[in-house]
Please model this.
Amino acid sequence: METAEKLALLAASARYDASCASSGSARRGALGAANAGGVCHAWTEDGRCVSLLKVLLSNRCRYDCAYCANRASAEVPRASFETDELVRIVVSFYRRNYIEGLFLSSGVFAEPDTVMERMNEVARRLRRDEGFGGYIHLKAIPGAGERTLAEAGFLADRLSANIELPTARALASLAPDKDGRAIVGMMRSIDGRIREDADGRRGAARRPRAWAPAGQSTQLVVGASPDSDREIVALAGALYREVRLRRVYYSAYLPVSTDPRLPGSPPPLLREHRLYQADWLVRRYGFSTGEILEDDAENLDPDLDPKSAWALRHLDRFPVELAKAPWEELLRVPGIGATGARRILESRRAGGLSLEALPSLGIVMKRARWFVTVRGRAPAGAGTDLALPRLRALISDRPAPRGDDAPGSAPAVDTRSLEAPHPSAVHPGSAEGVPPVPAADPLQLELGLGKGAA
Model:
């Protein structure tokens, strides 16, 4: 097979892996550089759109995961890159300004250690022979030995081991060749090495290059198994807490076969979007997983973003006085994000905070107006008591039904809002005093999600 044909096939085969955004690395070399903004067709924090070559080393695989287009039993064309071939492509694409880095994964075509070593060889050639300083993200293959994993962390900026399904029962049903505990074990090994590296570099007169400086990430496939949002959010929270993941990526299941174990249609993209919103609250806004899905709720509300849904369950905590509230309380107000909260604090210091100024600070007044006051004043129309159904309709993402008894209507959902928030490498916050979501699944218990887990 010609190189161009391999590239088309193996790039297409890699499109199902969402865990390829980057952040947190500052590697530089004779050829290219990676900065903290990162790569992979994503919007960086400074507003740039960056890209990387995202390919598989091989789409040959021993595993027969029902949801995977490259599973062993799939009747698809197979190909593998030679090391020289892929190195030549990366360097050529970089010199033409097509890419800023490489995301390299692979099917498990041989023993895990052999597959990991083959990917390491590509990265080794790029770093040492070509002087490549751009971003490299390598897929960590569970079962690979300590030596190959150690080298991968020195060569790559980020590593990722995809857990893909949120429960052991789902893995046993749809991916019987995979061991969830082995995947979690790989994540623990990566986290342990990152910690050891940080301790070893601390206080050194000449700081050596960091090991996997952009940390690790993983991916969860949503909708291939009947697992609830509660189980997905619980697992993500445990991964952030226990192995310090930088990101969990959510990928809505796409039907790739007629396997009777799989649903016949994909889940709504809105479900993936709600999971990203919930993830954002855990990582950036100090919410715990137990707060996002309380009581007996199994799934996120499709009509409300998770913060608004939480606020409606805790109306006793509102309105928040914006002239006095601390940062943590500002972030819990629907319609106020981190940028808006920062601008509120800046306006307070300058003495210019007012109700009229809120829209110009980036506050989404459709939601925030019902939950705030400024020096005792509420936005027009928001000071009167509203029945919960009407308030819910007013802040919903979906239009309410019209009619004589309709509680009200909201603008139609903007389809642009179905895009996930852009990646961030900020470590998750934590809310004290709120218990985690209980779980009985062996995989989740492995991550400390049993009763009494911190």
Summary: Residues 180-201 form the longest helix (22 residues). The beta strands are 42-43, 49-50, 53-56, 101-105, 135-139, 158-160, 216-222, 247-252, 320-321, 372-373. Residues 3-212 form one domain. Residues 276 and 421 are 7 Å apart (CA to CA).
